[in-house]
Amino acid sequence: MDTAPARGRPRDPAVDERIVRAAVEELAGTGAAAFSLNSVALRAGVAKRSIYSRWPNRETLITAALQSLSVGLAPPRTGTLSGDLDALFDQIAETLSEPRQSILARYAAELSAHPEQYAVFQRDVIDQAMAVIEDALVDARRRGEIRGDAPLPLAAEVFVSAIFGRSGYARHTPSGDFPQMKDGLIALTMNALRADGTPAR
Amino acid sequence: MDTAPARGRPRDPAVDERIVRAAVEELAGTGAAAFSLNSVALRAGVAKRSIYSRWPNRETLITAALQSLSVGLAPPRTGTLSGDLDALFDQIAETLSEPRQSILARYAAELSAHPEQYAVFQRDVIDQAMAVIEDALVDARRRGEIRGDAPLPLAAEVFVSAIFGRSGYARHTPSGDFPQMKDGLIALTMNALRADGTPAR
């Protein structure tokens, strides 16, 4: 009975949004393995059939919740590599605020059990961050700021991993938090890739 | 009744070991939040009182399980930075095999709820990896292989984060798996820190 769609009645977008937000909370607090539609209905203050009338099963609702977290990093195109990396560092660090931070951590823990659901999240959060960094590196190579043979995809991955690592595993390192890491990571990255080999500082 | 210690009877180290191994499995499969002594007793094939006679509560057993995963990375002292980083990359990648990989991922997900338990794991796995890398970098600076003012703690953190990131978040990047990443990451790190600014390759 619960699964009968409410045909003919127009959907209320505010309810859609409330359910998706509740699903995000459930993912961050519980994860995909124990994700419960009953709990989502409670969090959203709706009947379970209101969920089923919109998303036929938990998998489709989880996917919708993950997609709602997509951040849309934008290439800053400041005209210099240091300017671009500075702007992108802030954008990526912002990406790692809650609830994304918790979901990302659970994603790593539950990946092997839920590969299809989290592939969406990987694409929208992690792969996109790496792609937009690589884009900035390609621009810099075109301007002659970095060596022609510099390994750009790897450098982009390392840059993103360093930020993700600091936000997760390395939270309590002596070198402190994000703002303190930023300048050092940018200088390190530029030194690693520079055309003329001169240290950036 | 269950909690009465088996006084006077000598402890069997094989049972200790079986319980700790079962606790590690429970941490990897379930995490600390839902860690259950009943489930550990089942996994180990022992009575619950056999656990309580050794560890007074779940927290002490969890700590013992995490400590059993300590890896003891050793400074390789090959005489060159590239040799040291090559050996340490392999050691750290080996660290990230199961069950450590799963526990590390859960650690990131559950950190805020269980800070004291996981502090042990962070110290024995993550901080130790960073410290031994930094050690190799200090040796290299002494040999004149890298600049005097190179930011060694940050470089060590970025090196470790890149390996952790590849094992977790970035598993499916086009650049592939660990062996394919190793040479590139070492060259990138050396270029970032070199004394004379000449690309390493």
Automatic annotation (TrEMBL), chains A, B:
Molecular function terms from GO? DNA-binding transcription factor activity; transcription cis-regulatory region binding
Looking at the keywords, is DNA-binding present? Answer: yes
* A Pfam family: TetR_C_11
The residues that make up the annotated DNA-binding region are: 36-55
| Keyword Transcription regulation recorded | yes
**Segments forming domain HTH tetR-type:** 13-73
Keywords from the named record: DNA-binding, Transcription, Transcription regulation
Instruction: Enumerate the InterPro entries for this protein.
Output: Homeodomain-like_sf (IPR009057), HTH-type_TetR-like_transc_reg (IPR050109), HTH_TetR (IPR001647), Tet_transcr_reg_TetR-rel_C_sf (IPR036271), TetR_C (IPR011075)
Which PANTHER family does this entry report, sorted A to Z? HTH-TYPE TRANSCRIPTIONAL REGULATOR RUTR (PTHR30055), TETR-FAMILY TRANSCRIPTIONAL REGULATOR (PTHR30055:SF148)
According to UniProt, the name of this protein is: TetR family transcriptional regulator
Organism of provenance: Paractinoplanes tereljensis
State the organism's lineage: Bacteria, Bacillati, Actinomycetota, Actinomycetes, Micromonosporales
